[in-house]
Design brief:
The chain is 86% helix and 0% strand. The protein is mainly alpha-helical and 345 residues long.
Length: 345
C-alpha cells in the first residue's frame, strides 16, 4: 500500500504545484483556447485565401482580434473625450429638469396603465432632488467599486496581451495541440474520451455562433436605431449594449431609457420608431439564438442556456464558454453510460 499511496500523493502534489505556478496564465489560456476553437474555420479560410501561408493567416487573425477588442474601447473613450463639454452641460441642465405630465395613452394600457401613471406622478413630484436623495446611499459603494476596477486596468491590459500572444501561438500550432489533446483523451477514456474532445469543440462553436453573433447583431441594429433617432452618444451606448448582450442581460437597459428620453423630449415620432426597433431587437434573441446554437452542435437547447447562465454566474465572462462545454461533455458521457448495454455472458 505504501508505494501506490506515495505515488498518488506525489502526482497530486505535482499537478497542484503546476497549476499554482501557471495560475496567472490560466485565464488568458482559457480565453485563447475558446477564441481559437470558435474561429478556427475562419482562420483556415484565410489561409486558403492567402496563398496557403499559415504565417499570413495567423498575422491577419491577430490583427482582427486586436480590432475586435480595441476598436469598441477606443470608440467609447473617444466619444467620452470628444463630448466631455456636452456631457458636463447635460449634467448641469439635468438638475433643472422637470418631468412633463404623463401621456394620455399610458393610462389606457391594460392592467399596468394606472400603476405606471401613479409611478410617473410620484417621480414628477419628487423631481431630480428626490431621485438624487434615493441614489445617494449607493454613491459611496459605486465610487469604491469604480476605483477598484480602474486600479485593475493595467492587469486587464496584461491579460489581454497574453490572450493575443497565446491565440497567435495556438493558431500557428493548432493541429499539433488538437492532436495532443485527442491523444490524451484517448489514453484516458478510449474512444469515448476522444468523442468528448470533439463535442467540446462543437459546444464552443455553438456558443460562439448563438451567443456572440446574436449579441453582435442585436447591438448593431440597436446602434443603428439610436443613430437614426438622434440619441446622443450612440457609439458608447452600442458598446454597452454589446457587453450586456454577451452577458445575457440584453439590450433593454439601454434601449428602454432611450425610448423614454425621446418621449420626454417631445420627439414622439422618433420615440415610436425607436420603440418599434427596440421590440424587434429585444425579441430577436428568442428566434436567432436557438437557430444558430442548433447549427453549432446537436445538443438540447436548455442545456446550452443553463451552461451559459450558470457559467456566467459561476466563473464570470469566460464561463459563457466553459459552462456549456462542461455540461455538454457531462451530458454526453452520462447518456452514453445509460444507453450502454452490459456484455452478454
Amino acid at each position: 500500500m505504501t508505494r501506490p499511496l506515495l505515488g498518488v500523493l506525489f502526482l497530486g502534489a505535482l499537478i497542484v504545484a503546476s497549476f499554482w505556478i501557471l495560475r496567472p496564465f490560466l485565464a488568458p489560456a482559457i480565453w485563447a483556447a475558446m477564441i481559437v476553437v470558435a474561429t478556427w474555420p475562419a482562420m483556415l479560410w484565410l489561409q486558403a485565401s492567402l496563398w496557403r501561408r499559415r504565417s499570413l493567416a495567423v498575422a491577419a487573425m491577430t490583427v482582427i482580434l486586436m480590432l475586435v477588442f480595441v476598436v469598441p474601447l477606443v470608440l467609447a473613450v473617444g466619444t467620452i473625450v470628444s463630448n466631455a463639454d456636452e456631457i458636463g452641460e447635460r449634467l448641469k441642465s439635468f438638475s433643472a429638469f422637470r418631468m412633463p405630465p404623463a401621456p394620455e395613452w399610458l393610462a389606457d394600457l391594460p392592467f399596468i396603465g394606472p400603476m405606471l401613471v401613479q409611478a410617473w406622478q410620484q417621480a414628477a413630484a419628487a423631481g431630480v432632488e428626490g431621485l438624487a436623495a434615493r441614489l445617494l446611499p449607493y454613491a459611496g459603494s459605486l465610487t469604491k467599486w469604480f476605483v477598484a476596477e480602474a486600479g485593475q486596468f493595467g492587469f486587464l491590459f496584461v491579460q489581454f496581451l497574453l490572450t493575443l500572444i497565446l491565440s497567435a501561438l495556438m493558431y500557428a500550432r493548432g493541429e499539433v495541440a488538437a492532436s495532443a489533446v485527442q491523444r490524451f483523451a484517448l489514453r484516458l477514456a478510449g474512444e469515448r474520451g476522444e468523442h468528448a474532445v470533439q463535442l467540446a469543440g462543437q459546444a464552443i462553436r455553438s456558443v460562439a455562433l448563438g451567443v456572440v453573433l446574436t449579441a453582435v447583431v442585436q447591438s448593431t441594429l440597436g446602434a443603428i436605431g439610436l443613430a437614426i433617432t438622434g440619441v446622443p452618444f450612440a457609439a458608447l451606448l452600442a458598446a454597452v449594449m454589446l457587453l450586456l448582450c454577451i452577458a445575457q442581460i440584453g439590450p433593454s437597459p439601454v434601449l428602454v431609457p432611450a425610448v423614454i428620453w425621446l418621449y420626454w423630449s417631445g420627439e414622439t415620432a422618433w420615440g415610436t420608431l425607436l420603440l418599434v426597433i427596440s421590440v424587434v431587437v429585444v425579441t430577436m434573441d428568442n428566434v436567432l439564438r436557438p437557430i444558430l446554437i442548433r447549427r453549432g452542435a446537436d445538443l438540447p437547447l436548455l442545456l446550452i442556456f443553463a451552461g451559459v447562465i450558470g457559467g456566467l454566474l459561476g466563473f464570470g465572462l469566460v464561463g459563457i464558454f466553459v459552462g456549456p462545454v462542461v455540461l455538454a461533455i457531462a451530458y454526453t458521457l452520462l447518456k452514453a453510460w445509460i444507453e450502454e448495454r452490459a456484455p452478454e455472458a
